[in-house]
Design a protein that fits this description.
Blueprint (H helix, E strand, L loop, with lengths): L2 H29 L10 E7 L4 H8 L8 H10 L4 E3 L14 H13 L3 E6 L9 H21 L3 E4 L12 H22 L2 E5 L8 H11 L4 E6 L8 H8 L3 E7 L13 H10 L3 E7 L13 H5 L2 H21 L3
Parallel strand pairs: 1-2, 1-8, 2-3, 3-4, 4-5, 5-6, 6-7, 7-8
Helix pairs in contact: 5-6, 6-7, 7-8, 9-11
Length: 331
């Protein structure tokens, strides 16, 4: 074999090897976005604090007794939930962070009652075109990452925000600066051992494709999706739920997939089957909601009649039945 031919063969080997490395690196980058599940599907049921929003707000803002977060933890234990999501804006003084003593007392109470604190969450808007406003929200999220770490909550929930007037048709542009803000939060959260979960909320994130695209832009295995079953603005929200499941780090079950004013009830059997089929392991948080009334309109009869002390146990029973039928009876 001539030196020239030998040199050509060696160059081809090097190029093939380099191409293989690039392929493996590319495959790894894609794979880390899809969470690797082991041990088969498993569900723990959590209570989302928003179900008691009015009562919690009344207490936090000094508008009568209402319901404290401590009461919510007691309710979770009394109704045999596995966990509770202690949403940040029901802590007294929000958006300011609570004193350590308050955080640690709630943490101790939950532990002694056998209740996990699976999550906490904040209000934020990373769709805002004003860099100063986004920077302020990044600071706010970081402060509550510290709270999550002190609570022992493995995840902090954030939102995307809604596109501002004049920005409705600039999805990619908004997503670019949104992803940069989220990545700064995620990098900080990683240093504290806290995951960041973004909830599709019918705002900037209306579909599974949009949600997944944002996940890929942020590009971190410390970031994932809180699947909100009631807020995919599509003709078939079940298809969107299933599509984002590989990226799910929490799952939020609501009474209807078409919003809290819809009479169409969620198909819990279908939801639990997709969770089972996809091998999802983690929390399913339940959230009941009172019907919405348009701004400026008086409170409706349905709103006045909404009683979370009745609605939550009733929905919990339905969810537990669906879990049992899918996971236990399928064995």
């Amino acid at each position: 074999m001539t030196n020239s031919k030998s040199k050509q063969i060696n160059q081809r080997i090097v190029l093939l090897a380099f191409g293989g490395v690039l392929f493996l690196l590319g495959f790894s980058a894609v794979a880390q976005k899809s969470i690797e599940r082991k041990g088969g599907a498993q569900v723990k049921i959590s209570l989302q604090a928003y179900s008691f929003s009015k009562l919690l707000n009344d207490n936090a803002k000094g508008r009568g007794a209402g319901m404290s977060l401590s009461d919510l933890v007691d309710f979770s234990a009394a109704n045999n939930f596995d966990a509770v999501d202690l949403t940040g804006y029901y802590f007294p003084g929000y958006p300011q962070t609570p004193p350590d003593e308050y955080i640690y007392n709630i943490k101790k109470q939950a532990y002694q009652l056998g209740i996990d604190i699976c999550c906490t969450g904040v209000r934020n808007d990373f769709a805002n075109p004003d860099p100063a406003k986004r920077a302020a929200d990044v600071k706010h999220v970081k402060e509550w990452i510290d709270v999550a770490a002190k609570l022992g909550a493995p995840m902090l929930r954030i939102f995307s925000g809604a596109a501002f007037g004049g920005y409705e048709n600039r999805w990619d542009s908004i997503a670019s600066y949104m992803a940069a803000s989220i990545k700064e939060c995620v990098d900080y959260a990683k240093s504290k051992g806290v995951l960041i979960g973004i909830q599709n909320h019918g705002d900037f994130l209306k579909t599974a494709d949009e949600t997944i695209k944002l996940v890929k832009l942020v590009n971190s295995d410390w970031f994932g999706v809180i699947v909100d079953t009631g807020y995919f603005v599509t003709n078939d929200p079940y298809a969107d739920m299933e599509k984002v499941l590989p990226y799910a780090i929490n799952f939020l079950a609501k009474e209807s997939p078409f919003g809290n004013n819809s009479p169409v009830k969620i198909d819990l059997k279908r939801v639990m089957k997709m969770i089972h089929d996809n091998g999802y392991r983690g929390y399913v948080s339940i959230e009941t909601l009172s019907p919405k009334t348009p701004k400026g309109q008086p409170e409706s009869k349905e709103q006045k009649a909404y009683d979370p002390y009745v609605a939550v146990p009733a929905f919990l029973k339905q969810v537990k039945t669906a879990v049992t039928e899918e996971f236990e009876n399928a064995k």
